[in-house]
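Reply to dn_fold:

You asked what the input looked like. This is it:
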Amino acid sequence: MNPMSRRSMMKLLGAGALAAATPFGLSRQALAAGREKNLNILCWEGYNSADVLDPYRKLRGADVKAESATNDPTMINRLRAGENKIWDLINVNNPWARKILWPEHLIKPLDRAKFEPYFDKMLPIFKPPYSWAMSDDGQDLLGMVQRFGPFNFVVNTDKISRKMAEQEGWDLWNDKAMNGRYGIQESDDWNVFDIFLIAGIDPFKMHTDAELQTFSETAVKVFKGAKLVGDVAAMNQALVTGEIDCYLSGGTYTASLARAEGYDNIRAISPLKGAVMWVEVTSLVNNPTPSPLAEDFLAYVQQPQVARQVAFAEGTYNPVAQMGNPECLKLFSKDDLNAIQWDSLEEEMSRSMAYDIVPDYEKAHDLMTEAKRQR
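and this is what came back:
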């Protein structure tokens, strides 16, 4: 999809300037406030893309800054350290808003009457009240959802069939015959999840000393058996060339980059047992001097054309919740849908547990880091 046309932008600018409120409910009074033209977003990659932000900058005449990070705890720690005075929006994976940001008063709730109706147009799994976007007591709406997807491992189906991969699941990495045939994508939090799952242990609970010992032994085995360790580009390239047959951690997002280039034999797998998925939640930071553009931007990205742009922002291809709206879904071509494995997405999401917080993550991460050294 091309960015919003200049004609459309000028039409909105002209009409919005004359109205008592903008199309997204931004009042003249709010626009007169001190930060009316300034918006700062702390996010995963994609929302910092010029393809997403430049049309909004032009639409509002705004100074929008967005910075991406590589993991949720880093972003949260930045708010804890006082950067809540800098950022207006934070975009993290599903558990962090409800379990950490809200209890620590780092975010503030959205107006349910204004924002909950957007959920009605999303895919069925996000119908309101969607639990991960709500406070534990079900009273407060803590953010808006958009990008999501399964994230487990990726195979070359010329080497390992989808059926076999789904049935074998995490036991693929317990098979000595796989040594030297797989890669490890450097995504530490997901690798911790996956090593627990390979070991047959629930990642999302406190672990006994015996379980952590099993985790450590499994991590050593998995890293020693890997042909290579690297980033997403290296993993997909090795799959395409046949250097490896599969890699972890990976999913719809990582596989889509190769599939969009025509490599349909590269496929993300959600095993029949122990599959995990993620959903991003974007929340209002509890900034003492908030930007009036923060809520406006959250409404802006719900528009079908903008949601399509977010889904296929430069360097990241993901399904979005707004695809439940026919007006949004029709903007995705057959090739787009193939890239994000739309054919099996609903099925895979239905059997996946949600990304959650590992209570003793630091211990597990230290053990995994030591396993990498031993490799």
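The first helix runs from residue 6 to 18.
Hope that clears it up.
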